[in-house]
Amino acid sequence: MASPRAKPFIIGGTAIQPGERRIVDLPVTDLSTHTPMTMSVQVICGRRAGPSLFVSAAVHGDEISGVEIIRRVLKLSALRRLHGTLVVVPIVNVFGFIALSRYLPDRRDLNRSFPGSPRGSLAGRLAHLFLREIVDKCTHGIDLHTGAVHRVNYPQIRANLDDPEASRMAASFGVPVVINATQRDGSLRQAAIEQNVPVIVYEGGEALRFDEMSIRAGVKGVVGVMRALNMLPTKQALKPRKLIIAQSSTWVRAPASGILRATVAMGSQVREKECLAHISNSFGDHEVEVQAPCDGVVIGRTNLPLVHEGDGLFHIARVGEAKGVAKILDSFSSGEHYAEGLTAELADDPHLS
Ligand SMILES: [Zn+2]
Asked: Which of 19, 39, 13, 18 has its CA nearest to residue 27?
């Protein structure tokens, strides 16, 4: 059965007609230089009705991988047959992006400033604009992040798995580790959930760098969610993926200061008390072992080999003795996930790889 024709999508006072693709610049404020600052949004309005999905990146201005993920998604030829509306905001924190910084010029963290207010700080105003112009008009969302500066994240999803729709999106994204995130933290995701818009967060790679595996997993993930929401064509039934679900995670801190040598790779399954790294002094004659505090999977780590006592070294998702964890991680790192389940058309699309 054909879906009904789509209606125009209105954003920033501009109506985007079914079948139209348009960039809309939403005014944020003027810079101290008198230069107007805008948050730019591209809207692709399908000819047929369906969900409206936003995909946002660089909420933390130095987490730039998502900009590349969005660029590749926008090249997909399958978007010609889009059902519903895709709304992309490649650079949310426009201030941090040009300054290569996570924060706003006043050092506030935009992802702790939601829901914000039109009379609040600059971060609060930007948060409010995003909620009013993007979240209010969408039915679903994906927010793309990376590790903070000097830290790298293994591809993972954070979502509130108590919400069945967010849970479905998390499963269709296709990365192996999902962290059940339920805390109230002033984030975009939490503010959207309070407006009944399910949002999942993708974390992969590191700040100020492009990590090809994380970018490919992100592109594949956005496409996977769009297919699960019936926004893109699906020739074969979607198979439910096996996921590693963690209810919590923990940072392993340096037991001593010195020079760090890691002995585990990202995405490794580790056992409690397993050796993760050694820290030695600069002469190499005094050495301390860093041990895993619990069973889990290494989902993040520092890139700096120089550490002070108390620095966060490894981020471990607590997954206990779950069976099949190693197999799921292996099949992801061997690249099986990139090919599995793609329609011929999407798999052939040169921009997906
Ligand atoms: Zn971030």
From this structure: 39
Between the CA of 59 and the centroid of ligand 1 the distance, in Å, is 7
Q: For residue 82, which of 46, 55, 38 has the smallest C-alpha distance?
A: 46
**Predicted structure pTM score:** 0.94
Distance 60 CA to ligand 1 centre (A): 5
Give residue 324 CA to ligand 1 midpoint distance, Å.
29
Would you tell me how many other CB atoms lie within 10 Å of the CB of residue 321? 7
pLDDT tens per residue, range 258-311 = 999 999 999 999 999 999 999 999 999 999 999 999 999 999 999 999 999 999
Largest alpha-carbon pair distance within the chain? Answer: 73
Q: How far does the centroid of ligand 1 lie from the alpha carbon of residue 56, in Å?
A: 11
CA of 196 to the centre of ligand 1 (A): 22
| Surface-to-core class of residue 239, CB atoms within 10 Å of its CB (0-12 exposed, 13-18 middle, 19+ buried) | exposed
